[in-house]
Amino acid sequence: MTFETVLTPELIEHYTSQGLWTDRVITDFLDEVAAEQPDKLAAIDSRGQVTYAELKRLSDRAALGLLELGVRPGDVVSFQLPNWIEFLIVHFAVTRIGAVNNPLIPIYRDREVGFMVGLARSKVIVIPQEFRGFGYPEMIERLRGNWPALQHVLVVDGPTTDTQTSWREFIDTPWEQRRDAAELAGLRPDPNDVTLLIFTSGTTGEPKGVMHTHNTLVAANAPLPARLGASRDSVIHMASTFAHLTGFLYGARLPTQVGGATAVYQDIWDPARFAELVEEHRITYTSAATPFLHDTLNAPNLAQRDLSSLRLFACMGAPIPRAMVREARVKLPSLTVLGGWGQSENGLVTLGIPGDPEEKIVERDGYPWPGMEIRVVDFDGSALPAGKEGRLQVRGPFLFVGYAERLEMTRASFQDDWFDTGDLAVIDEDRYLNITGRTKDVVIRGGENIPVAYVENVLYENPRLAGVAVVGVPDPRLQERAWAVVTLAPGVDGFTIEEMRDFLAEKGVAKQYWPEGLEVLTELPRTASGKIQKFQLRARLAGAE
Questions:
Q1: Is residue 529 a contact partner of residue 198, using CB atoms and an 8 Å limit?
Q2: How many beta carbons lie within 10 A of that of residue 358, not counting itself?
Q3: Are residue 432 and residue 507 in the same domain, yes or no?
Q4: Of the four, 3, 123, 326, 342, which is 20 to 30 A from 426 by CA?
Q5: Is 37 helix (H, G, I), strand (E, B) or coil?
Q6: Paired strand residues for 265
Q7: Do 310 and 283 touch, CB atoms closer than 8 A?
Q8: CB 487 within 8 A of CB 467
Q9: What percent of the chain has pLDDT over 70?
Q10: 108, 116 contact by CB (below 8 A)
């Protein structure tokens, strides 16, 4: 596959000269850690554990095996694996030979996988035999007739058949005896090559293949040691899927990049099990979307487990209800909760700073990472001053280099060299970010904009509610009306629109901002990263109308 990007020699020179692009590849870090700390535990998952020496040996072997299967630099390898050690082995192997990583979220099924692997023109796909009751080989057989580029299917925990190869057979084969291991050094990729093709999680209903280079990914993790104290002494937890950028950057790659931290993974999120793992392994740091923090604070065994080692919980990918931050300070006083914001296109752009004044942590979505710039513009593209709401745009060394097979779409997403994020925001006088909504989430009622994020945050303070989303429903006279869609807290058996109105009145919310309708669901539709899929709610409510 040929990857058309917006990367230019001028851009490369700009970030390289500033030291923001260091021309390092993640396998460079693996080689160093395996040499310096070969017996250090690299990762612990639900199935076993691996040292850094073993991780390097297995991933190098897999790299040689992929070469034997015909994979070459620039070819795409897809892998739809849970948060297992096999994911790490495949990732490092694919990177080692200059191929392109295409991680797929395990909950994706025929429609999503069919589109994504087809667009990627993957040569190899690695899947589990079964995960959470779903048989992946059967899905691949239904789809592979539409994928002429696909040559091999490797199946973790599966047998070798006429149509697939057992991962165990593949990884137990001594490929280093069949091929010269020295050829791997000659395949070290150019750090400005595309190494990751990761699909957006679908908040708008249209997945796009986001392309990142080695330099953009390494740059995205580089500030964590100085900003958050992440180091080889950290114990880093990850329960978000590795196939989302949060899990990929801070679960699969960060432990190696900071010099050899130990990672603890969950393939199925269970807050009670997370509490046990913190106590057992002395976990110090985790990154996840807001629902994970909510679940942790309500874990049934929270009071019985020692979570004092857990120093940081970085909420990335979705806003944190302010009430939840305050609850965390009461239940886990040794924990710092930091709100951050980012996208598949740009990694983590902003994050709170430990030690910030309370109002910055509670009321803002973080401060820009080193090298990343943010601004807000009016709808005509004019830059706005501090304190004014507008369209959020970003630029910097973490920014993606394009949407696969969508060069014109990529170019249309930029204003000059600023990427238009699709979010509405306010930047305060200290450069802290406050996400106020999505440009496509704005509810315009009779010509007046309703501050969606503000109303949602107030409703999240109601202890009877567990989840909240405010969306616009078409109206022939007013253009739109605002509806609240909520889920209930455990033990709550109902919630009425009168209760909602009384609560908003008590909180002093202007009446023109009150949602005019209410729907109670058992579950809000979310992406794998925890973001609410408001396009599904809009479609549901429009149909109901």
A1: no
A2: 10
A3: no
A4: 326
A5: coil
A6: 238
A7: yes
A8: yes
A9: 95
A10: yes
- Angle, helices 52-68 vs 85-96, to 10°: value is 60
136 and 142 Cβ atoms separated by less than 8 Å: no
One domain, residues 299 and 155: no
Report the DSSP beta bridge partners of residue 101: 77, 196
Verify that 123 and 233 share a domain, yes or no. no
Structure tokens at 114: 């069919």
Among the listed residues 263, 259, 252, 264, the one whose alpha carbon sits nearest the alpha carbon of residue 231: 259
Confirm whether 2 is domain-assigned: no
Burial profile 255-276: b = 16 or more Cβ within 10 angstroms, e = fewer: bbbbbbbbbbbbbebebeebbe
Query: How many CB atoms are closer than 10 A to CB 109?
Result: 12
By three-state DSSP, how is residue 366 classified?
coil
Amino acid identity for residue 40 in this structure: K
66, 96 Cβ separation under 8 angstroms? no
- Do 345 and 372 touch, CB atoms closer than 8 A? no
HSE-CB at 7 with a 13 A cutoff on CA atoms is 24
Lowest mean pLDDT among 90-94, 325-329, 485-489: 325-329
Residues contacting 532, CB < 8 A, separation 6+ = 203, 318, 467, 469, 524, 525, 526
Contacts of 17 (CB under 8 A, 6+ apart): none
As a whole number, mean pLDDT of residues 376-401 equals: 95
SS3 content of the chain, % helix, strand, coil (to 5): 35, 25, 40
Query: Does a structural domain hold residue 113?
Result: yes
CA distances from 169 to 53, 158, 161, 187 (A): 21, 10, 12, 25
CA separation (Å) from 530 to 203, 246, 313, 467? 10, 11, 15, 11
pLDDT given at position 302: 97
Whether the CA torsion 428, 431, 432, 438 is positive or negative: it is positive
Distance CA(331)–CA(313), nearest Å, equals 13
Domain that holds residue 297: 216-399+408-438
Judge whether 255 lies within some domain: yes
The answer to whether the beta carbons of residues 112 and 207 sit under 8 Å apart is yes
Token output for 380: 């005509």
CB 76 within 8 A of CB 103: no
For 541, the 3-state DSSP assignment is helix
Identify whether 414 is part of a domain.
yes
Tokens of 110: 């025929």
CATH of the domain at 125: 3.40.50.980
CA distance 183 to 505: 69
Global pTM?
0.85
Q: Contact at 8 Å (CB) between 467 and 459? A: no
Which of 129, 134, 118 is CA-nearest to residue 154? 129
| Pair of tokens at residue 199 | 């699909």
In single-letter form, the type of residue at position 144 comes to R
